[in-house]
Request: fold
Amino acid sequence: MTARRYVQATAAVAALGTAWCVAFLTVGAGTEAWAYVFVPIAGGLAAASVHRMLRAGPGLDPVARRFWRAVRLAVAVISFGYAWLAADMLAHAAEARTRSMPVPAAACVIAGFLLAIGALARVPVVATGGVERWRMALDRTIAFLGCSAVVWYVGLAPMLSAREPWSRQAMLIDGLGFAVAVAAATKVSYIVGGPVDRVAIRLIAAAGGVPAGVVAVLAVRFGYAGSIPAQAIVMPLAPLLVALGVAAQGRAGRRPRRDPARVGVLLPYLAIVAADVPLIAVAFGAPLRWPVRVVLVTAVAVTALVTLRQYIAYRENDRLLWNTRLQEERLQFEVSHDGLTGLANRALFRDRLRNALATTGTAAVLLVDLDDFKTVNDLLGHGIGDRLLVSVARLLRSEVGDAGLPVRVGGDEFAVLLTGDADPEELAARLLAALTRPISEHRLLVQASIGIAVAGPGATVDSVLLNADVAMYTAKQRGKAGVVRYADGMREPVLAHMQLGGELRRALENDEFRVVYQPIMRLDGHRLIGVEALIRWDHPTRGVVSPAEFIPAAERTGLIVPLGRFVLRETCRQAAAWLAEFGPDALQEAGLNVSARQLHDPDFVAEVTGALADSGLPCERLVLEVTESAVLRGQQVSRALHELDRMGIRLALDDFGTGESSLSLLRAFPAAIIKLDKSFVDGIEIDDGRPAAADARQAVARAVIQLARALRLETVAEGIESAEQVAALRELGYTVGQGFHLAEPTDADGVARLLARQRALTS
Ligand code: C2E
Ligand code: MG
Ligand code: MG
Reply:
């Protein structure tokens, strides 16, 4: 039978008792001895229901088990006592009216109540320390005394002085019933979410108190006439309440735990009020001399005022506690959330991920990195950059919803932790789609690269994050605004690439870099007019590493600044040396590549001036090659470029024609030279007899030379690999070029040999 069935069964017995009682009182059915049979039957059922729970519930906490075992025994013993009483009454039905409870039966009932009180006393309370324990003991004693005063005044004392000759046993039992009620009631406030359910304890308090109270009132007011409904109707309620308590304990695990009850704190105040009420009743009800009455009233007034004062102090305390708690919560929030966006921070993210891996073993991480956020910051300032981050955070929060935890990992890097069964790829697609619309009040367009890692068996926080990082990195490399999900084998190349940053630092310290120079020649007569400095890395194990491979890493890590400084100093020194050796006509210009990050460096202009001064190379001999994307990097860069131009240093637009705004750039940028990109030189010479096709191939080269003429700019054609290309370029009007066909990049000695040969030819 389930706990519910037991409740129904005890309720049915109680209802039967009521029905019998009504029948007896109205039509005088049967003998009054029957009034005594309902309690033991209902009691037996209640004991059985406790028994069933103890048998069926392996999940029961040991403390709760101990408690319910004592309750089972108490209910069984009490029921036995009442069964004895019922048997005695039925056996002597004729004298039922005058018989008092047999002593063994009363002894059983009294023992049962004492057992119940003992069980309640052993329910542990949630005390945090010694002082707390004392405070609770005091509170409960106060409450106990207060309640007892009321019980005494309204129950026991009237019974004692009643006209009917009440047996001592009955009074003792009633008193003990109250004691159970008071013990349970004063305990319930301190057990919070303890092993014994609060509701169950309350029901047991009611099982002791309600019947005892009603029985006392009935007995005092109606004498013997009250004892029939007391036995048949009121007392069977006690087992019913116990059965309900069992059901409540069964549900306890499924109820959310609540905060410590406030009533616990209020209990002593209520007790004082409870004790004061009979006192006032006595003061005005009984015939007393007025001085005594004054003393009584004053005593009540004083206790009432002290209570009030205490209560106010308690409220104040409570308010302070509340404030502290709020503050704690705020602090807690601050250490686990990002100050700017309010999203969870890296620490909380790792924590949650660790939890998810430990509990379910499954989790998916999306790493979202904004593309070119640095540009926004540089171009528009940090204020707008911050606002953009806030907008991205808002977008993330609304797209993710309840499906996961959005995080700001740091800088322009965000993440989402998915612990449910939301599809990470679908979310990534949604995020990218949302980012195609301009965001923030500045209507900015940002893109993001997203890496996805799904935790496999045995995954750790670090491995999942590394995988997400690798996937994101791969997404970036594959072109921006993309999504990549981590797959096996993805790590190695990416890690090698990531390592490059670290290796570069070491290489710089170990002098593994050197500069080579590619001659820039006149297309007619192949005479050297200048050089372009190109950096080379002699890697100890990998051999010569191309700049195309490590310059991006150097830019990302900022190492391009010292690296560029090295090329600048070296080139200036070398060019000055050649000029000294071969005379002022030997070399018109020495060029070198400057990356965007260098132009951003506020010291860059000073460094160029310093290198020129130290080497003695005249300003007009130095050419700085910059790419379009570098030039488009905002105020600071533009200021630096104009300043260099004013100093007489010439600026060349490298890889011209490959960018998006080459033409408009020419107006704003003080360029002196245009370097036609190799892609427009490739295939320029092909003559397949179809003039239109050749025309299309030459279109850009033609346009660029016309533009250069109009703007009075010099040109250099890059990447010339054949004599046919030279011819085609000359045909178009180009006079200067660079390429493997003319001369490959070589070390300084190679250039020196070339210069020496040239001098020999002309002299
Ligand atoms: P860039 O400035 O356009 O340099 C020209 C690149 O084309 C060089 O490659 C050069 O070796 C190569 N090249 C020259 N003639 C030919 C040819 O006929 N055919 C082919 N296929 N290639 C030719 P490199 O040295 O690998 O440099 C690649 C890029 O790395 C450079 O492009 C430049 O943007 C960057 N870079 C090189 N050195 C430095 C440096 O010191 N600082 C910075 N910031 N960037 C550098
Ligand atoms: Mg260049
Ligand atoms: Mg180039």
The chain is about 65% helix and 10% strand.
